[in-house]
Design a protein that fits this description.
By secondary structure, the chain is of the alpha+beta class. The chain has helices spanning 28-31, 93-105, 152-160, and strands at 8-11, 15-23, 36-40, 44-48, 53-59, 70-74, 81-86, 115-120, 135-138, 166-170, 176-180.
Length: 189
């Protein structure tokens, strides 16, 4: 799991919460209409590798990684390290166990498909998705957003008019790019 690049360049000069009109190098394919846009869900990322569950973890500069942390990437711009920690050591372990039990009760296909999932529910990020119980959503099964525009102004307006956290584009060659509603100030919509 590498950090998915944001389609537009972040405005580190004025306000890093927002993006500029500049396209992040390597993400031009999104504006050309390539790739499939899918809904970005607002939860926390976990991974099943076939033998163990992992939780996505960011380690801020100067902080000690948790035991068992596997670094995948270091972001030179922010100084953060991104990787996986064993899920049982994560702050989300209890809610993940609840989601697994819930899935077992609903005849989820076993064994679990390898891949990344979004852990969603009442105790995750304030539950902006409105789930009544904790659930796991396979990222490969995310809803397609085929009506999403492909330009800066159109995306700002579209994202602010929907309740989704954002969009993740998937290119057939494996590249991905993302954009969140909060990447745009409200007046940009």
């Amino acid at each position: 799991m590498k950090k998915i690049p944001t389609v537009f360049v972040r405005d580190f000069e004025h306000d890093p919460r927002y993006v500029t009109r500049g396209v992040t190098p390597g993400c031009e394919w999104v504006l050309k209409g390539e790739g499939t846009p899918t809904r970005k869900y607002d939860g926390t990322c976990v991974m099943w590798d076939g033998g163990r569950w992992w939780a996505r973890r960011e380690v801020k500069p100067g902080k000690v990684p948790p035991p068992g942390f596997v670094q995948v990437e270091h972001d030179e711009e922010t100084g953060k390290s991104v990787g996986w920690e064993p899920l049982e050591r994560s702050a989300f372990a209890k809610w993940h166990a609840e989601a697994v039990r819930e899935s077992d009760d609903q005849d989820w296909p076993h064994p679990w498909p390898h891949g990344t999932y979004e852990l969603l529910g009442p105790r995750i990020n304030g539950n902006p998705e409105g789930f009544e119980a904790h659930v796991l959503l396979l990222h490969d099964a995310a809803d397609e957003m085929t009506d999403a525009p492909r330009d800066f102004d159109g995306l700002a307006a579209w994202l602010h008019s929907h309740s989704y956290e954002g969009i993740v584009w998937h290119h057939p060659d494996g590249r991905m790019a993302k954009l969140k509603a909060r990447d745009f100030p409200r007046h940009a919509a």
